[in-house]
């Protein structure tokens, strides 16, 4: 599975961005997909995920109520709508594919497939 992340950019505090993760394999639709981010000097952290089985969604506490993850299996795409962006959301955002579901989706080690990052910068 190859994943391609896009949609990053520069936005002001309070603004919105929509990230997209495109999967190139037909089997993409049976993978759970997660978003992670990594800011300079910090460890990579979980942002959001959506299960392949029941489309259940998972969010980090820091983004709940502001970010929404969704998937369009017909387009082999998973989107991350980010509203109310804050300077602390500035990071390189990665999408990743997993064969797992449930609470494993919070952990990067359960994702064997990773796309390249897309930079999100939020100015204050």
Span between termini: 37 Å
Q: What radius of gyration results from the CA coordinates?
A: 13 Å
Strand content: over 45%
Q: What overall geometry do the principal axes of the alpha carbons give?
A: globular
Q: What is the H/E string?
A: EEEEEEEEEEE
Number of helices: 0
Oligomer: single chain
Mean pLDDT across residues: 93
* Fraction of helical residues: under 10%
The counted number of beta strands is 11
Low-confidence stretches: none
Category by helix and strand content: mainly beta
What do these coordinates show?
The protein has 124 residues and is an all-beta fold. It is built from no helices and 11 strands. Strands 2, 4, 5, 6, 9, 10 and 11 form a 7-stranded mixed beta sheet that branches. It has a 4-stranded antiparallel beta sheet with strand order 1-3-8-7, with no helix packed on it. The protein is globular and about 40 Å long.
Walk me through the topology.
Layout: E1 3-6, E2 9-12, E3 17-23, E4 32-38, E5 45-50, E6 57-59, E7 67-72, E8 77-82, E9 91-98, E10 113-114, E11 118-123
Parallel strand pairs: 2-11
Antiparallel strand pairs: 1-3, 3-8, 4-5, 4-9, 5-6, 7-8, 9-10, 9-11
In short:
This protein is 0% helix and 48% strand. By secondary structure, the protein is mainly β.
What labels would you give this structure?
single chain, 124 residues, seven-stranded mixed β-sheet
């Amino acid at each position: 599975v190859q994943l391609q992340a896009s949609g990053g950019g520069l936005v002001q505090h309070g603004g919105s961005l929509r990230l997209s993760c495109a999967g190139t394999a037909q089997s993409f639709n049976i993978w759970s997909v997660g978003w992670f981010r990594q800011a300079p000097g910090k460890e990579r952290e979980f942002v959001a995920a959506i299960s392949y089985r029941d489309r259940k969604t998972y969010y980090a506490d820091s983004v709940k109520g502001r970010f929404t993850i969704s998937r369009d299996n017909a387009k082999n795409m998973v989107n991350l709508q980010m509203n109310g962006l804050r300077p602390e959301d500035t990071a390189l955002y990665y999408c990743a594919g997993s064969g797992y579901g449930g609470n494993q989706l919070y952990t990067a080690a359960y994702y064997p497939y990773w796309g390249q990052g897309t930079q999100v910068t939020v100015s204050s």
